[in-house]
Amino acid sequence: MHFFSSFRRSSAHIAVAAGVAASTLVSLPAPAAAAGSAPPPRVSVFAVVAGNEPAGVYTDLSLLAFHSSVSLDLPAHVRHDATGRYAVYFSGPDLGTVPTAGLHVRAMTDGNCMPFDGITPSRHPGLQIDVACFDSAGRPADRRFTIAYNARGAAHGALVTAATAPGAMSSDWRVAEPQDTGGAARVAYTHPSPGLYTFDLPYLPGTAPESFATTALAPIAEAGTGRIPNVVCGTTGRALIPGDAGPVRQISVTCRDAVTGQMAPGGTRIHVGYTRGVNLTGASGVSEAYFTAPWISTNSRVVLPDSAVHDPGPVTTGAVAVQRHAVGQYTVDIANQEGTIGYASIVATANGSTALCRASVPDPDRPGHLSVVCRSDAGQMDTGFHLHFVSRKLRLRLSPLAGL
Q1: Are residues 114 and 200 in the same domain?
Q2: What is the DSSP string of 339-379?
Q3: Does the pTM exceed 0.70?
C-alpha cells in the first residue's frame, strides 16, 4: 500500500475508448448548497479570439465573437501580451463564484493553444484566463483560438478533478493537487516515465455514463532543443479496484507529442477529470453530437445517420463521410455544418487499440471538414475512432445573452 492510505495500488487495467483531447479541462468539485438557499447559476461563456490583436492593449471582442449565459459588466476582452501569449477577461457578478467549472481552449489553425495557468480572478468580479499558443514545431506563435468556460456543466452529477504537481518523474504515489481550495476529493498518481501516468480516483457510483478527460496544462521545453511540444493526452486503460475507503477507479494515461509521436517530456503537468452524469464539455449554449467511424480499409466510407447518437440535440442531420488518405490519416466531412459554427472542443478516441488520435480543423472556413490522425509507438496506424465534438452556431443577433 502506498502512503495515500485511502487507495490500494493495482496493476489491473481494462482497455476502453476514452477521450484524447487537445483541448483542456479544468474543474472544481461543487459544495452542497446551504439549506433554503438558491443553487448557484449555471454559467457558460464562449469566445473566439482572432489571435492577431494589437500587442500590449485590451481589445474588446465583438458581439458575434462571444456569448454568455449570464450578464457581463463589461464586454469580453483580450490582452495580447506577447507572441503566442494572451489574457482573456470575462467580467460579471456571477462569474468566478461557482466552484464547478470546465475550461476548454482550442487552436483553430495548426499548432496548439492551452491554458497557461488555471482560472484566476480578474481585476473586476469575474475571470482571467491566460492562454499560450504554439505552432506545429512547438514555437510560440499567434493563433486563432476558441475558449469555453462552463460552470456546473450541462447536467448535474458527481465530479472529481485534480492536477499533477510540477516536478520530476517518480514511481512513488503522490497526492494530486485540487484545482482550487474548493476541491475536497483527493487523488493519488504516479508518473514513472515520460508520458506515462496512473491515477487512483474515488469511485463515483451510479448508472449514469462515466467520462474521463486528461489533458496537458503547461508546456515544458525539450531538453537540448528548447522546442515546446504540442502534447496530447488520453486514457489508455481503466480498472475498478478495492481500496481502504471503498472502490477506486484507476486509469492509465499516456501523453505524446502530437507531431513526432514521441512520449511527452517527463514532468509534463496534466489535469485529470472524472465524472458520472456530468457533460464535461457541454453547456446550455452549445449542442453536441457523437458518432463512431468503423475501422476503414477502403478509400472512403459513409457512416449513415442511424449510426449516430445525438445528445442532447442533433448537429449531424445527414450522412458523415470518412475518407482514408494514408495509414492513420483521415478526413471526416459532417453534413449541414454552417460556416458560422465555432468549436469549443473536438476529441478523437481510438476504439479497441492503444493508438492516440487527434482531431483538428485545418480550414476555419470549413468547420464541418475535420482532420483525424491516429498514431501508436510505431507511428501512424489504422484504427476505428470515436469523434466527439461540441459546437455552437454564432447567431446573428444584437445581444449574445438572450436565449443561451
Answers
A1: no
A2: TTEEEEEEEEEEESSS-EEEEE-S-TT-TTEEEEEEEETTE
A3: no
